[in-house]
UniProtKB/TrEMBL annotation:
PROSITE patterns in UniProt: ABC_TRANSPORTER_1, ABC_TRANSPORTER_2
Keywords: Amino-acid transport, ATP-binding, Nucleotide-binding, Transport
Gene Ontology BP terms: L-amino acid transport
Protein name: Branched-chain amino acid transport system ATP-binding protein
Molecular functions per Gene Ontology: ATP binding; ATP hydrolysis activity; branched-chain amino acid transmembrane transporter activity
């Protein structure tokens, strides 16, 4: 539902520069896959987009408006939700409470999305009263995505949703994300080490190497290019 344009983005941690001149754009309703080896700046990119860290220069435009000066909560109110690496759910709270936290986190009172969330992830519906920390890794990931959906987002940023999850479930989560993307027209930026998952679901891909883009194009272009061999070692 919203386009995102990143132009000459530099960001990092204090004196440590990580992202260098990163530029790409995503049309509304598209899926962008972000690939790259460990430590190449993928999570840093997600943090810079969500507002957890500041851009030192460059622009981040949401539907044409530069949001790079906004705080994380202000970006969340504009419809950006983040499913962080390691999931970031509240382990002591129940599934129901975690989902409700998603709704509260949106700041406003978004329309109640719980019915759709449970239709995408029926397993959550069977576990509404279970303490989230006692669920399997895959179920916790579904909950993290479900909680993000509860904010009624326009853009979802996902950081390695396949992390620590068995292959069949990874496939299923990928299929469900694509379904959500199609049904809701939700723009998705997804960071992954799981290259097949990205090649299956992304419209466009970028590859990050030491904080800079070394590839950018349609998934077909990137997947057939030599850079995959060169920078992803597969
Ligand atoms: N809080 C921080 N303070 C200082 N440096 C950091 C911080 N977080 C990350 N870095 C550094 O920034 C660089 C990029 O890290 P980042 O977490 O973005 O990589 P990544 O591509 O997500 O890796 P992974 O695949 O392992 O998750 C690394 O060199 C890392 O050490
Ligand atoms: Mg990371």
């Amino acid at each position: 539902m919203m386009s995102l344009e990143v132009e000459a983005l530099d960001s990092g941690y204090g004196a440590i520069k990580v992202l260098r001149g990163v530029s790409f754009s995503i049309a509304e309703g598209e899926v962008l896959g972000v690939l790259g080896r460990n430590g190449m700046g993928k999570t840093t990119l997600i943090r810079a987009l969500s507002g957890l860290i500041k851009a030192t220069s460059g622009a981040i435009r949401l539907d044409g408006e530069d949001i790079s000066g906004l705080q994380a909560y202000e970006r969340a109110r504009r419809g950006i939700t983040t499913v962080v690496q390691g999931r970031g759910i509240f382990p002591q709270l129940t599934v129901r409470e975690n989902l409700e936290m998603g709704r509260i986190a949106a700041g406003k009172r978004p329309r109640d999305r719980s019915e759709e969330v449970l239709s995408y992830f029926p397993r959550l519906g069977e576990r509404m009263s279970q303490q989230a920390g006692t669920m399997s890794g895959g179920e916790q990931q579904m909950l993290a995505i479900g909680r993000g959906l509860m904010t009624d987002p326009k853009v979802m940023l996902l950081d390695e949703p396949s992390d620590g999850i068995m292959p069949t479930l990874v496939h299923q989560i990928g299929v469900t994300l694509k379904e959500i993307n199609k049904n809701e027209g939700m723009t998705i930026v997804i960071v992954e080490q799981n290259v097949p998952m990205i090649f299956n679901m992304a419209d466009h891909c970028i590859i990050l190497e030491k904080g800079a883009l070394v590839a950018k194009g349609t998934t077909q272009e990137v997947s057939q290019s030599d850079v995959v061999q060169q920078y992803l070692a597969i």
